[in-house]
Amino acid sequence: MFDQKLSDKSLLKTKGYINGEWVSSDSEKEFEVFNPATGECIANVADLGPVETQRAIEAAHSAMSEWTKYTAKEKSALLREWFNLVMANQDDLATIMTLEQGKVFAESKGEVAYGASYIEWFAEEAKRIYGDILPSTTQDRRSIVIKQPIGVVGAITPWNFPIAMITRKIAPALAAGCSVVLKPAAETPLSALALAELAQRAGIPKGMINIVPGKKSSEIGAQLTDNPLVKKVTFTGSTRVGKVLMAQSAQTVKRTSMELGGNAPVLVFDDADLDKAVQGALAAKFRNAGQTCICANRILVQSGIYDEFVSRLTAKVEQFVLGEGLAESSTMGPLINSNAVEGVTDLVSDALGKGAKLTVGGQVKEGAGFFFQPTVIRDLDQSMRLAKEEVFGPVAPIFKFETEDEAIAMANDTEFGLAAYLFTKDQSRSWRVSERLEYGMVGVNETAISSEMIPFGGVKESGQGREGSKYGLDDYLEMKYICLGDI
């Protein structure tokens, strides 16, 4: 049994969470959650829809009136307690995540800590929402700027980081004074519900966090975008869905923040530290079996070191051990479902059919679960789908370039602009290339660029807005100007 693997079995929740209550769907329908490493059903979860979502929105709207009475220090203390409880239950949360999402336990445990860091960060930032007194144009007036919560937030999160993508939306919303209605991915609702249980234990008032699990994603999304009580929609996921949500939100002029698709390049120049470049590309590409939005999607290597780079990366990739995430021997878990496996297979087949060469992997792993072998492909060109499309899987396509200008042109030849990386020992080149890359985030000689203290987000069709850092509260706040006359 699933819950036998948990120290605190009460963290396994299978109902929705609305206004501080655990609720079934009105229809009593449930949906199955599967372990992608085995294909087995691990839980049946309440299948909520737009009607329940509307009730959650109304509860969230009512809850805000009470939350505004809490001082900044009181809000901070509650968020800090939530952080403490998440960290105290790190192993159980990681176990839940591994069983429903598939990533190996060490990665899941790391994500719990990473997700908790956003709660800790915004617990502090809750006390630092400052206003201004502006110079006045006349002697009898004073001009003041204050910041106030925008209102109810509708949040939609993906399956690939089922805790971190939630905390970096809910934590700043609560810190700013906003309540949240969250729709987690149907593949990974259990992590979201466990977070809600811990928030309840922390004393966060009812209605401030509402979790609406369900398979009716478009209907729930439409309720969040159409309901006038929702003032902001925040979404992490595909560019295609993000565009739909933005268009729907325009009807009520909601604020939106979108963290959408990526096609991250890694530029490796001849003068790079080859060991660091190989290790950096390895980590960036194969974390979470390649299922991250800032994964190294295209590895661009200068011709002088191309063959050596391919050889070294291949040798590293050959050492991966595929397996179920809770097995100590596993170093890489499965993809999320059969559609993901099929998508990766098609991209690899397209490249090989057009002349690319496989150095390792390239096949679906036989047996139970949704496993694809960690793969390295060399000698690609711009005609191949791997040059243009985001591959959400453990496939490292390695392209060759000659000059700096060529590398930058190749890197920028995409509608996406989330993250990019480069490796060079030339400081002048570091500045030149970083400034010319059309991406919201650039890592120089480093691919582990994420933390709660940096502004995470992209440009072009990779989205709008930033999450984390001192800028992370901005999208949850309205600026109000007050003119005091007759002074």
Automatic annotation (TrEMBL):
Keywords, ordered alphabetically: Oxidoreductase
Keyword Phosphoprotein: no
Gene Ontology biological process terms in this record: gamma-aminobutyric acid catabolic process
Domain Aldehyde dehydrogenase: 22-482
Matching PROSITE patterns: ALDEHYDE_DEHYDR_CYS, ALDEHYDE_DEHYDR_GLU
UniProt keyword Transcription regulation, yes or no: no
The organism's place on the tree of life at top rank: Bacteria
One Pfam family, short name: Aldedh
SUPFAM superfamilies, per database record: ALDH-like (SSF53720)
Family: Belongs to the aldehyde dehydrogenase family.
PANTHER family xrefs: SUCCINATE-SEMIALDEHYDE DEHYDROGENASE, MITOCHONDRIAL (PTHR43353)
Name of the protein described by the UniProt record: Succinate-semialdehyde dehydrogenase (NADP(+))
